[in-house]
Amino acid sequence: MSELGKFGSELGAGMEAAGFLSSILAGLLLGLLLDWWLDTSPWFVVIGIVAGSVSGFIKMWQLAKRQDDG
Question: How many domains are contained in the chain?
């Protein structure tokens, strides 16, 4: 594999790994918005962080499986 191709695949893997953090951040922000709107603090923040974490771990698991197979 050429150096450019190797860099591109590593960059792509890094971008997919950043999806883990973005999932948690999205859950946090949606939870904050719902808590503000419904005045239910902190319930939706907790639910959003848990849901974002689960989503992020699923993304990371799929990434690890894909790299392990290929």
Answer: 1
